[in-house]
Structures are given as structure tokens and as C-alpha cells.
Amino acid sequence: MSPRAVQELQPASTDPAFIRNFCIIAHIDHGKSTLADRMLQITGVVSDRDMRAQYLDRMDIERERGITIKSQAVRMPWALDGQTYALNMIDTPGHVDFTYEVSRSLAACEGAILLVDAAQGIEAQTLANLYLALDNDLTIIPVLNKIDLPAADPDKYAAELAGLIGGKPEDVLRVSGKTGMGVEELLDLVVASIPAPQGDINASPRAMIFDSVYDAYRGVITYVRMIDGKLTPREKIMMMSTKSTHEVLEIGVSTPEPTPSQGLAVGEVGYLITGVKDVRLSKVGDTVTTFQKPATVALKGYSEPKPMVFSGLYPIDGSDYPNLREALDKLKLSDAALVYEPETSVALGFGFRCGFLGLLHLEIITERLEREFGLDLIATAPSVIYEVTTDDKKTVTVTNPSEFPGGKIASVSEPMVKASILAPKDYVGTIMELCQGRRGTLDGMEYVGTDRVELHYKMPLGEIVFDFFDHLKSRTQGYASLDYEPIGEQVADLVKVDILLQGEAVDAFSAIVHKDKAYAYGVLMTERLKKLIPRQQFEVPIQAAIGARIIARESISAMRKDVLAKCYGGDITRKRKLLEKQKEGKKRMKMVGRVEVPQEAFIAALSGDTETKDKK
Amino acid sequence: MLPVGTAERAAGHPFGVYLHVPFCRVRCGYCDFNTYTSTELRGAKQVDYAGQAQREVAFAENVLTNSGIAARPGSTVFFGGGTPTLLPSHQLIGMLRSVENAWGLAPGAEVTTEANPDSVDARYLADLAAAGFTRVSFGMQSAVPHVLRTLDRTHDPERVPQVVGWARDAGLQVSLDLIYGTPGETLADWSTSVEAALAMQPDHLSAYALIVEEGTKLARQIRTGVYPQPDDDLEADMYELVDARLAASGYEWYEVSNWSRTSTRTLPPAGSGAVAAPAEDDAARPTGTLADTLASADALTGPTTPASEFRSRHNLAYWQGHDWWGIGPGAHSHVGGTRWWNVKHPAAYADRILAGVSPAAGRETPDGESRELERVLLLARIRSGLEIATLSADARHEVAGLIADGLIDGRAALAGSIVLTLRGRLLADAVVRRLT
Fold first, then answer.
1. What is the mean pLDDT of chain A?
2. Which of A26, A107, A546, B43 has the highest Cβ tally under 10 A?
3. Do B427 and A580 touch (CB under 8 A)?
4. H or E, element range at A42
5. Terminal CA-to-CA distance of chain A, rounded, Å?
6. pLDDT tens for residues B125-182?
7. Could you tell me which chain B residue has the CA closest to the CA of A587?
8. B257 to chain A: which residues are within 8 Å by CB?
9. How far apart are CA B431 and CA B122, in angstroms?
């Protein structure tokens, strides 16, 4: 007899004693989606024929990058010792940028599978999420995945996991999401060890929103975990943070296709559709109650998403600006954390200043804009939020170097983070060197297992958003992993460096940097631009300046020759076409004062392509 | 048949004939011209070529007549290559005769052939002159052996003064072609070549910056690092050097890469065929220059040729948008706003000609904006070629800026024409982009 449940339990009338809510905590490529797929298959909710690899990751980008951005919940039946259970698997985002979303997903569960690659061991982000899970009093089931790999070293990493969460190494379950080995035992363990949800069926209904996604056909789909009471179709619900009310058009569970039900009751996990079109009306962490029988106390833990990293996004083809606006408007419907406002740049034209939760969020949004909306974009160097106080005691919030006030500055404060870096112990020296170079101060260091070390640093976020992760990866052959969380602000000696072309500041290159690094930044950018900007008919000085003080200087000598020597009868057509092409190219030039700069030069300067090319 | 309207547009313009001779003894590493060595001919025979060219002349005569374009005598005839002088002189003369038979030659017509210094002798040049040739343009390129070697030029630099002497004895005007910017050529090397050319007192001089053309041996050698990339700044220095030396020696630029004697030279009687049509008016030429002084001095010494007569009238016709028919493989033609070009390979060309079909491979009639771009790009290259009044309003707005940037001559602009300054000639393409 297959362990599959013979009969499923009906939503809205399931005894909480037979419900198990859990999530999987795992690093990006440690096989969470594959394991989830296998569970869907083994419990029979997805037929083998319909099995699509990584079923739960709907978006292309997610599938390609192997990361889950948007979590979903799937209800799976499972029988143990003759009793049928309803298992709700809540998929969590795996990245540091989405810590808040992760925390809400965790709050919807009683237990978590800690999934670790048996060939790689635990990573910094997984550690961070593990802390969060323990903080939420979740029951942890440690699991090693990919034990079918030749490189797997399950004994070593079982010891490591046991060392982290207590317990014995032999209690660490060993599975292969790929082959399905150990997955049935894991499902049994979920039923046996994760506590059933608690709650009061007679209390005023309270449901916590742990995810909210926009669907082009259905509008916003809100994923909730029922804490108390019951919600039913056509009921009028109320969001406790905004007091806005909506009618429930559909309520149900994911199996994993949305399946309408007669409602959701205590302990259950499912979705609501109210017909709203904007995820901002259904915020992650908010409490849903009913209009008729409203709860008085909202569930704790709700907070507004707060952008930490800012960058200007510009269409490479200026005529795409309206399309970019439309695309952002659409993405906003499904991403409550995305904020943006129009911005213009001399170098890059019309675009948007966008706020993101972190670097990955920035990367994902730009990639979605490019892929789903067919836009070619350039992003300016990421910036963080600075509080600048001028001598006349005015405080300005600066998310863009162009907002940095002129004149005398009394102080500048910058956001700080606690960064945790996990890496093999051989790399400790090089990581310390990198972090110190980024104004990090070491807070502590501890061994994870026998050969890996977790380093804790206090660092300015501004140092992390500027290519820190790339450097970390390249210095550790990709072995280091990074996690960070905000820990307030510090006052620092920060200045704005402007890059001037023939005396005109190029806004896209202005940067707020530490005083000690201003010169290096100035030299870097002036040298880059000298290589990238074609010669003009006049000499073009390129300067880096702090206010009126020039700190670095290069110059592009004047072009002296721009003429085709020969132009006879047979050359005319060719020559005309050449000039037509040049004129076409000139139209795409950006003007900085009188200097014509090809957009590609700005893009290359922003992306640092020049140095990379030199290395090759 | 040429497109409708061609006849109207062609009316009143002078008519020239270009005859391409697509053969060379060796292919020079820098050359991307349509020319072939004996091993590359794929069955086409050099000896048959003159006859085929003459058939295309007859074909051209028919097309023009059938298109309703009144026969205009040839004002200029130009034999280019390749190496025209690889053919025996009687073949070149035969080709010239066919042109004469088809359209006649205008009084004082300019008849030029290009020549390699090592492919002609005194007898050959005398034959051409006797048959009506008026001008020979020698591919001197350089006087410095290592530069000639890099260019794959086979001639001995010592031979150039000799052939120039023979040409002059035959009564031919002499032009020398020089190339600068050859990999490895220094400013001193270039100066040596310029002085060597000046010592021969040519009537006309062309100096071209070496263009590295895609697909040539030279382009490969640069790509693979055998030779360095040409240096624009060095080339600009070289241009300034040759312009200064020529100006000081009585030559005046009339096109970006072409200079002609301003001092008139008494011609031997044999060259009397060249004493003809008056020079085009050169309104913006400054007065009181060395040229005028020399001209008035020469005026006292006997029969003279006007200074402007040393310019290549055939090439001026290209820049002024006149009409010409290009005979031969790969040759380009322009009649009344339509341009076309022949199939490139001599074998394909021979097939077409022998089958009695047009050798044209493609054609175009550039429209409004392209046409204006062509007009400006060509006329801006020649001194006083471009009248400001003929420019678009937008382009006229650029004129003040061009003066301020030192790219065009302010006084000439006030007088109504665009005359590039020295700096402007080096940046002529930038000027054209601003004027179109």
C-alpha cells in the first residue's frame, strides 16, 4: 500500500490536530525546489505526468536562477498509522533581501525542514534564516540533501548540523530530492515531530498574510495562515493595518493549483481573492479579520517594507521611457517593496529612481524588466540612504548623490549592517582584508563545524552595495556566503565626489564615498572615462572633484584627424553611407556640455567593463 | 535604360569617361582596388580586355542615346586601375579612340592615365602624348625604400625622376601620388618623400593618408600585430607638413588631398593640346598671394597655362557632381543623379559584355537627404566648392560655429562659400556631419 492518503481532509472542517504547517529553509542551490517537487509527487497532488521540474517556482527567472522569490503554500495529504493529515508546505524566499518576507513565512509555520547540501554544508543565509526560525520557536528537522552526489560528505555535515541545533548527528535525515530517497521518511517525520497548530475556533477571525502575489487574470492572490476563527466565501473581510474592507470572491487552498473551498479554519493555510489589483492593499504581515466580527488585536510582527538600496534605472533607448513606466507600474502590483519616482540625468536621460530591499531585489527587478517587458536598461551605481546635516542644522535625506547638499556639511550618517560571512577557514585572512578595506569592524568569529568559520562584521551598507559581494566571491573562489541585517546608523566622514567633463558634472557618476576613498574613486572614474570617451575636436579635461576641489584629473587630447583621404567616383556611395551611419550614431550621443559621449561609454563606465577587459 | 528624369538632370553638365584597367603585376598589401594579378583572372585575358572596354563604350553610347540624353563630348577622360600602363600603349590609345568615336572630345579635353614608375618608358609616354593624352599620374607613394617595401611597391625610387623627365619631354602634365602614414614611416621619412617629390616640380600632387581597408593583407598584418595601428596624430602632423611645404613651394590645395601648381609653367610646344578651356572661377582665392605674383611674372615670359589648369578636372567632376561613365569591371558611373557600378570580376564582366548585356551590378538614385549629404560631402572637400546659400537653414546656422571652431575660413564664409581651414581639412568629415 502506498503511503499516499486514501482520502483527503476537507479544508474548513479539518481538525487542527491533523494539520502540519512547515517550511523548508535552504540556501539557493541546495535543492529545496527539487525536494518540494518530490513531495508533491510522492503525496500524489501532482501526477507524475504533470510533474514539471521545480513546480513551485513559477517565474522563469526563478527557475533559471534556482531561487524562489515568491513563496506559495501547497496542501498535501499524507497518512501515518492509519490517520490522514493535511500538510501545508510554505515555500520561503531564500535570500537576505527578503528577510521580512521570510520572517512572515516562518510565522505561518510550526516547524521547518533545515535542508543542507551534503556536499557543501550550511551557508550564511541559511544560518540567518535558521536563527529566525528558532526565534519563532519552530521545530527544526535537520536534513541533508543530495546524498546521491559523489562529493557528498554526509557524516561531516551531519556533525556540523547537530553542532548547530543540538541533537545527534545520526538524527539528521539523509535524502535525495533528485531520486526521492528518504523523502517518505521525511514526510512521516514532519507529521510525527512538528506540533499541530493551536488557535481558538470561536474567537474573532485572525489570519496572517504571509504572501501576496499579483495575477494578471485574478488580481491579487493573498496567502494567509488562519490563527483564530474561520473565514468563508463572500464574507466581508477587513485589513487591520488600513481598516480597508473587501469582499472575499474566492477562498481556497493550493493543491498546488488553486482549489476553492468552503472556507479556511484555525491552523489552515490557503488563499483569498478579493478582486483588488494592487498588492499594496494586501500587505505581507498584515492581519485579516472580518467586518462582522472584527478582532481587536492585530497579530504582531507587521512592518512596512523599507527600501535599503537605491539605483537609477534608465532605458538605453530614450523612447522606451513610457514603456519603462508602464512596466514598473505593473511590477509594483506584485511587489509591495518596489518604490520608484521619475528622475532625469544629463548622461542617461529620463528614468526612474528606484528603491529596493537589497542588491538581489535590484537585480531581479532589472532582469524582470528586461526579460518580461523587453526593455534594455542601464542601472546607476547603487546608493544607500544618507542623512546629511548641514552647518545651519538642516537635515536632508539623500538617496541619490545629486541630492547631496552643497555648502558646509556638519555631519553625514550612513546605514550600518551586521554582516555575517561564512567561509572555509583558509579564507579568513583574505576576507578580513576585504572587510577592513570596506570600513568593517570585526565583531566576532566562530567555527561552524571543523573547517568553516563565520565572521561577524559591522559594516556600512554603502560599502556592501558597491561590488562587495563580487569581490567576496572572487577572493574565496565562490565559497564564501554573505548575510546582513540593518543595525542602525553611524556618523562617518563621507563626501560627494563629482566627475566633471569639461567642467560639467556628469550626474550618473557622482558618488558618496568615504573621504579616504575619494581619491581612489576619482582616479578610477577619470581613467575609465578617458579610455571610453572618444576624442572630440577639442581637448576634454576629465576631473574628479569634492565641491570645488579637484582631486584627480585626466584629459582627452583633441582629435586632429577625421577625414577620409580619398574620395573618388567609386568611393562616393560608400563614403555617403559611412557618413550616414556616423550621423545616426551621433544622434544617439549624449551631450555633456559640448562633449559628445556615446551612451555605451556611460554604460561601460558604470559597469566597470574597462578594468575587466584589461585583465583578460 | 536610365531612370525617368535622368536626362533632365544630366542636361548642361560636363561629361567625363573613366576607363578602368583591372590588372596589376603584383597586388600591394594596402590596396583594395578592383584589380587582379595574372593568377587571379580565372580565364579572363588581359589581352582581350581593351576590346571589351571598347564594346562597353559602344553600349554606353546606346544607353545614353536611348535615354534621351544628348551626346556631350568628353571633357575629361581618365584611365585608372589597377595599372593601365600594363596594357600596350596602342590598346590604351584604342580605348581613347572609341570614346572619341562615341562622343567626341571637347576642345582642350583632359586625358589622364595613371602609371607605375616601372611600367612605362620614354617611347610609351611619347606615344600616349602623340595620341592626345595630356596628363600622367605616377604612383610614386614614397621615396623611402623601407616604406615602399612595406607598401609592396616594386619600383626603384631612383626611377621616378627619370619617368617624370620622359613624361615632361613628351609634353605631358605630371602628377605624383604620395601615401603617408605607412606603418614604420616616420615624420622624417615623410619629409624625405615630400622633398623628393618637390624636387621633380610636378604640376600636381596628391597626398593620401594610408587607409587600412578591410580584407587587405595590411589589415591582417595590423590585426595580427605585424604592424602597429596607424596613428591619427602622426598622420595629422604629416598632413600639416606636406601642406606647409607645398604651400611654400607654389602649390595650392584645391581638394583635401590634392594640390596643384599656382605658378604657371611655360609648356613645351608638344603639350599644346592642354592649353585650352579657361579655369573655373575661383572667387574666394585670396588676392596678393605668391600665386598672383608668380602669375604676373610668368605673364611676361610667353605662352602660359592658367594655374587652375593643373588641377585634375576629371577628379573635380566627381566632387562637383558632374556626369561620367565608368567603363570596366567594378567601375562606378554617375549620370543625372543615378549612380551604378559594374560587376567586379573581369571574367564576369567579359561574360556580360560578350553577351551584349549591361555589366551593371547595382544602381541607386539617392533621394533628398542622401543626395544633399552627397552634395555637401563632395563639395566641402574642394576649395570654394560649397556655396552657403545652397545649404539648408539648419546647416547655415552651423556656419558661425564652424568659423568659431576654426574649421572654416571666416572671410570666405562672409563672401558666401565654405572653405575649410587647415584644421578643417583634417576634420572635414566632422564639418560635413555638422552641415547635413
1. 87
2. A26
3. no
4. helix A32-42
5. 61
6. 999 999 999 999 999 999 999 999 999 998 999 999 999 999 999 999 999 999 999 9
7. B433
8. 565-566
9. 44
